[in-house]
């Protein structure tokens, strides 16, 4: 078992004919992911190393049965790509592209929330999602992940996600699913969404959360841990030594109050029942101990 | 990007948010000219991106040209909490009947826009928020709907803005919301928003933070960017498209991804070192980007050792390695480099590094080992 994606997930890559889309689309396929289609309105009818290219996500879905989309198009084209995928009935839309303006993110997030409640958005600016051995959508180097569980991972940072997968693999600990939710202002899928799914997944027996400074996502995760999570959680928050960020005027301070610093997030997660590590390596060690107990 | 007050007011005016008549000046003569255009009395305001300029003497009223001259001479070049004043805003003085507070920003938790409005402006609004939160009226705005006149009117009523202010406030706040959304701002804040004695509303201050990601659809921002006050290395890094923040330590840090870069600072600190900077080379970093990053750090005289921490996703290992090698050939680096490389195509990358390994270029297998080695080398070099 896993969350959100498995061996049966059929993927269409929006932007497959671009350099990034091609590189990672083919890597994902080589990993074993069912990358069944790509889209490009000007290149419909062609193929990328045997992967057929369609004009629209709707066409791709009809021809191939794709139910998940992965978006690599440039930032200005992302809003249309997301709405097209949701409109075509994709159950999962993963946006890898970075640099999407915050107002665009907020707009398509709320358009989906209202008009396409059946579509799960992941990202933007995220590394993607991997259920090791079954399905890898996005830019994670699949070979650094060991499959089979029992650990679920959810992370706001791309490279820290790889670090965590790597630390666990070194210790021969497997992963059910690893979700990179991205660090942008309006992530489509939150820590809490993933914790809820991991709590319900019988093969996930412990969860690792990788957070970073800014926003209130870790504090919300901590509230969920305290109220609704029975499985053990190990957490790491990057940015204890980070330079004090640009303060967002008074409005930002009023909205977030004392939340947002790495220390506040670590305290909240500890109070919520998580074991909190001081660096990624320690997070791996803590998880090894937790796994030995469950 | 944070705008100066005068830039923020120009931005406000573009979207129909009323501001005082005035203009910016970089010299005493320009200040007098702006005052003559605006009409006396005027206010002469230091343009710095730091609070407390009023208390520091950076805001003065002038009744005639001689007073403008005197104040401009005093304020230009003044140091306000580390910020040297290079520009003045000279604008018509206002007779104030009441002071309010208004802002829009994103509520990341609700994933909706959030408007804050208070009839108690002009003071430390954070104090008001902490002690009397009921004095601040909040409104959540779904960007799909925008801020309707009806919702805005109810919000203004809830905030308790007086009868004279209400009709103008609805119009002003809707314009301010357009400035926030169409203007691609992360934050627009007016403190104080004033009601004048002749019952008009004016944004007497302007705090605007623009979303750098939206620069592709705002060619006009290039002009604003040229006035940003950055230190030499921040400027150099920005020109090369790198995220750099200078710190006080001795170990230069280069990492890919903000999370890993922050984690690298934390780990260096944990093993007894002090980071000299935060530098994120971002996704897709190629040889040229890596070389640029090394060149930026090489100009920092405090740096004793450089720690490159790359975990490859988008960034491929051989690109990182080629970049390091290329930079070694291009720049005469004053510090040794410790590299930790993993992820996509890491094997190819490590093979390239192994060919060039020396006392100036050390490769380490893990993040902690690399951090320890970097700290050791930095200490050796005092």
Q: How is this structure best described in words?
A:
The complex is a heterodimer of chains A (294) and B (382). Chain A has 294 residues and is an alpha/beta fold. Chain A has ten helices and 14 strands. In chain A, strands 3-4-2-1-5-6-7 form a seven-stranded mixed beta sheet, with helices on both faces. Chain A has a seven-stranded mixed beta sheet with strand order 9-8-11-10-12-13-14, sandwiched between helices. In chain A, strand 3 and strand 4 form a beta hairpin. The longest helix of chain A is centred in the middle third of the chain and has 14 residues. Chain A is globular, with a radius of gyration of 19 Å. Chain B is α+β, with helices and mostly antiparallel strands and 382 residues long. Chain B folds into three domains: 72 residues, 2-Layer Sandwich (Dna Ligase, domain 1); 127 residues, ATP-grasp fold, B domain (D-amino Acid Aminotransferase, Chain A, domain 1); 149 residues, Succinyl-CoA synthetase domains (Rossmann fold), CATH 3.40.50. Helices cover 37% and strands 25% of the residues of chain B. In chain B, strands 7, 8, 9, 10, 11 and 12 form a six-stranded antiparallel beta sheet that branches. A four-stranded antiparallel beta sheet of chain B has the order 1-6-2-3, with helices on one face. Chain B is elongated. The mean pLDDT of chain B is 91.
């Amino acid at each position: 078992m896993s969350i959100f994606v498995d061996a049966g997930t059929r993927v269409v890559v929006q932007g497959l004919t671009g350099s990034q889309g091609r590189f990672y689309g083919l890597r994902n396929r080589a990993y074993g992911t069912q990358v069944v289609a790509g889209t490009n309105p000007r290149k419909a009818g062609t193929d990328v190393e045997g992967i057929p290219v369609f004009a629209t996500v709707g066409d791709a879905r009809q021809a191939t049965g794709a139910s998940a989309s992965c978006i690599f198009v440039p930032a200005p084209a992302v809003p249309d790509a997301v709405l097209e995928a949701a409109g075509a009935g994709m159950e999962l839309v993963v946006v890898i592209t970075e640099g999407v303006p915050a107002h665009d993110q907020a707009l398509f997030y709320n358009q989906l929330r209202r008009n396409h409640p059946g579509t799960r958005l992941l990202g933007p600016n995220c590394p993607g999602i991997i259920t090791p051995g079954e399905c890898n959508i996005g830019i994670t180097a699949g070979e650094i992940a060991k499959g089979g569980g029992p650990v679920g991972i959810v992370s706001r940072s791309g490279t820290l996600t790889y670090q965590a997968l790597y630390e666990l693999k070194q210790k021969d600990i497997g992963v059910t699913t690893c979700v990179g939710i991205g660090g942008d202002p309006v992530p489509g899928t939150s820590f809490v969404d993933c914790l809820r799914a991991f709590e319900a997944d019988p093969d996930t027996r412990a969860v690792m959360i990788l957070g970073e400074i800014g926003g209130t996502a870790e504090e919300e995760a901590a509230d969920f841990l305290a109220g609704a999570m029975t499985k053990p959680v190990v957490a790491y928050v990057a940015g204890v030594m980070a330079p004090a960020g640009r303060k967002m005027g008074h409005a930002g301070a009023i909205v977030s109050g004392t939340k947002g610093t790495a220390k506040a997030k670590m305290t909240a997660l500890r109070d919520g029942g998580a074991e909190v590590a001081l660096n990624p390596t320690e997070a791996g060690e803590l998880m090894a101990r937790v796994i030995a107990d469950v | 990007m944070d705008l100066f007050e005068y830039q923020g007011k120009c931005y406000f005016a573009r979207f129909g948010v009323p501001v005082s008549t005035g203009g910016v000046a970089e010299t005493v003569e320009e200040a007098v000219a702006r005052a003559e255009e605006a009409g006396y009395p005027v206010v002469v305001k230091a343009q710095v991106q730091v609070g407390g300029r009023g208390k520091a003497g950076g805001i003065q009223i002038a009744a005639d040209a001689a007073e403008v001259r005197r104040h401009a001479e005093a304020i230009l070049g003044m140091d306000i909490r580390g910020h040297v004043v290079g520009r003045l805003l000279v604008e018509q003085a206002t007779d104030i009947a009441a002071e309010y507070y208004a802002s829009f920003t994103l509520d990341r938790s609700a994933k909706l826009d959030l408007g804050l409005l208070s009839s108690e402006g002009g003071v430390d609004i954070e104090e008001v928020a902490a002690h009397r939160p009921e004095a601040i009226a909040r409104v959540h705005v779904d960007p799909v709907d925008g801020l309707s006149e009806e919702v805005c009117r109810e919000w203004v009523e809830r905030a308790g803005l007086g009868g004279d202010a209400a009709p103008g406030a609805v119009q002003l706040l809707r314009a301010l919301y357009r400035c926030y959304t169409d203007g691609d701002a992360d934050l627009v804040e007016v403190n104080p928003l004033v009601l004048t004695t002749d019952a008009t509303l004016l944004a007497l201050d302007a705090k605007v933070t623009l979303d750098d990601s939206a620069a592709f659809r705002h060619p006009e921002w290039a002009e604003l960017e040229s006035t940003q006050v950055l230190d030499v290395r921040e400027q150099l890094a920005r020109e090369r498209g790198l995220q750099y923040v200078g710190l006080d330590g001795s170990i230069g840090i280069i990492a890919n991804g903000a999370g890993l870069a922050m984690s690298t600072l934390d780990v260096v600190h944990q093993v007894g070192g002090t980071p000299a900077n935060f530098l994120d080379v971002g996704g897709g970093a190629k040889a040229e980007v890596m070389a640029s990053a090394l060149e930026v750090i090489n100009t920092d005289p405090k740096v004793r050792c450089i720690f490159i921490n790359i975990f490859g996703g988008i960034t491929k290992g051989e690109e990182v390695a080629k970049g390091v090698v290329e930079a070694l050939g291009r720049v005469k680096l004053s510090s040794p480099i410790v590299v930790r490389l993993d992820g996509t195509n890491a094997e190819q990358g490590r093979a390239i590094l192994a060919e060039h390994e020396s006392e100036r270029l050390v490769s380490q297998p893990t993040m902690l080992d690399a951090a320890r080695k970097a700290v050791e080398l930095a200490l050796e070099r005092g």
